[in-house]
């Protein structure tokens, strides 16, 4: 067994064939992560010394990042003792991921290509999660797909998903054409490190595209439960879509104090709101980046663009959190 040493001081062992991320989570060292397949960059860390091997293509890294020594911990195994520079969650404890049964409750059509799915978990499951995390749903044929949770808590043991139709997708066919109330499925989670960090007196900006608004909704609702001295100074939500129908519910109607800016990239002639891309609209607001914390969820292209633009504008990488929606390798 080789050892992984984090620059900040922690160290842990990795079994043969075990990724750095798997070894970290197994030993209680919580690193940032999202897709677990090398397609996003949430688990990006820098190799300071030692040798590693990529078990899958690191599609979430640019050629320049690779040349500069960046790796993705979710797909890298180690060939020697290594030292890496990685962003950890500090004292934050993640709920333990587990596999539990669930039944399909109500399915509501929110848009022509989006359904709202409610899953019921049994009382014995004791399923806890942090608002913003996601789950893997295991379908009738064993297929597994990831979906963000859209509710802040599940005191009634009901979990809410917002699912977009993917042409040719096995689970899309199920959700849109086959699913019935009381269907028995399984889910595994909670997963991911996309959730609210310290927000007291900060200017919090949420960037979302498509169904990336689902975990944003969960985090917005979770703000209602914060003590007064932990509230942000301001909260702004920017939700991007191509056409008006892509904004399939009214974010401004959610409880709490926040500014909502819908953004369209291909608006009709009558549209008078913000146009273009959410990251550009955010920069156009001239935010105080020293006091800003950004949470971005949606397309990988949006997240990479937002991360680069905001970093170049002066936002600290530690104040940018993301969850990229990437297509499964076998839809």
Write a structural description.
The chain is an alpha/beta fold. It is 16% helix and 34% strand. It is built from 6 helices and 19 strands. The protein has a 6-stranded antiparallel beta sheet with strand order 11-10-13-8-9-12, covered by helices on one side. β10 and β11 form a beta hairpin. α5 packs parallel to α6. The longest helix has 14 residues. It starts with a strand and ends in a 6-residue tail after the last strand.
Question: Can you tag this structure with a few keywords?
Answer:
alpha/beta; 331 residues
Give the gist of this structure.
The protein is of the alpha/beta class. The chain is 16% helix and 34% strand.
* Assembly level: single chain
Helical content band: 10-25%
Report the structural category. alpha/beta
Shape field = globular
SSE string: EEHEEHEEEEEEEEHEEHEEEHEHE
Protein topology:
Blueprint: E1 2-6, E2 11-14, H1 20-26, E3 44-49, E4 52-54, H2 63-67, E5 70-72, E6 76-78, E7 82-85, E8 98-111, E9 114-120, E10 134-138, E11 144-148, E12 158-164, H3 170-178, E13 184-191, E14 203-209, H4 213-222, E15 234-241, E16 259-264, E17 274-275, H5 278-284, E18 292-299, H6 300-313, E19 320-325
Parallel strand pairs: 1-7, 14-15, 14-18, 15-16, 16-17, 18-19
Antiparallel strand pairs: 1-2, 3-5, 3-7, 4-6, 8-9, 8-13, 9-12, 10-11, 10-13
Helix pairs in contact: 5-6
